[in-house]
Amino acid sequence: MDFTVLTVIIAITSIISISAFKNQEKLYRFLFIPSHIQETKEYYRFFSHIFIHADFGHLIFNMLSLYFLGSFMLDAQGGTYIGGSGELIVIQDGWMQEYGYIIGQIMFGLLYFAGGLFATIIPYIRNKNNPNYCSLGASGAVSAVIFAAILWNPTMKLNIMFIPIGIPAYIFGPLYIAYEIYMDKRGGTGIAHDAHLGGAIFGVLFVLFTNIEVGKRFLELIF
User: Helix, strand, or coil here: 19?
Assistant: First the structure.
C-alpha cells in the first residue's frame, strides 16, 4: 500500500474508530449531534463524526469503499479498454497524474473532508432542534469520493456487494441517488440517507468546480 493522503486517512480513521468502540466517553465527544452543536457551539462535531464508526462492519465497509474508489481516483491509469461484454470503457488518468503528485493528493483531501462537512448540512437543518438525533461515520465523505469518481470516469464498472456483475458508473450513480431518496422518504432505517445525498452532491460539484471540462466530457460519453 503506497503512503498517500488516502492511506493516512484510512489509518487515522481506523485507529480512532477502534479506540472508541469500547470508550463511550470518546465516542460521545466525536458524535455529530445537531442540537448539541446549536446549544454549545461545538462546531468541531461537523468534522469529528467522520473518524468514528458504530462497529467493525461499519468501519470496514466505509474504509474498503474509500480505499478502492480513492485509489482509483488518485492513481488510475488512463486509456481506452474493451470490457468483458465488448463495451467500450474509457478511463481517465488519476488525479496524481492529472494535477501532479502533491496537488492531486491535496485536492483529494479537500474533496473528502469538505464532502464530509457538506454532508452534514441537511441533517443539521433538519435536526438542530431534535435532541434525540445523532450520527457517526464517514459515509457522507465516502459518497463524495464515489460520485467524484463517477463523474471523472463514468464508464468504469462498479460492483455492489453480493452482486458479481459490474455496473457502469453512469448507471450506478442515478440508481444510488434514487435509492437514497426513496429510503430517506421512507425513514426508520437508522441510516443518514440525507448525508449520503449531501456527500454525493458535493462530489459532483467539486469536480465540476475544479475542472469543468470533466462535465463536458461526461455528457459527451453518455449522450
Answer: helix
**In the structure grid, which three cell numbers stand for residue 191, read together?**
441510516
3-state secondary structure at position 32:
strand
Q: What is the pLDDT of residues 4-17, one digit of tens each?
A: 999 999 999 999 99
CATH class name, domain 5-222: mainly alpha
The whole-model pTM stands at 0.93
Secondary structure letter of residue 135 according to DSSP: B
| Rounded CA separation 64/215 (Å) | 27
User: What is the chain's mean pLDDT, rounded?
Assistant: 92
Cβ atoms within 10 Å of 4's Cβ, excluding its own: 19
- Cβ neighbours of residue 81 under 8 Å, at least 6 residues apart? 88, 89, 90, 91
Q: Is 131 within 8 Å of 125 (Cβ atoms)? A: no
Q: Which residues contact 12 (CB under 8 A, 6 or more apart)?
A: 51
Taking each continuous run of H as one helix and of E as one strand, the counts in the chain are: 12, 4
Beta bridge partners of 167: 158
What length is written for the chain?
223
pLDDT digits (tens, 9 = 90+) for 46-62: 999 999 999 999 999 99
Per-residue burial over 73-83, b if 16 or more Cβ lie within 10 Å, else e, is bbbbeeeeeee
In terms of Cα–Cα distance, which of 78, 82, 81, 80 is closest to 95? 78
State how far Cα 13 lies from the chain centre.
Answer: 14
What is the reported pLDDT for 188? 86
Confidence of residue 81 (pLDDT cuts 50, 70, 90): confident
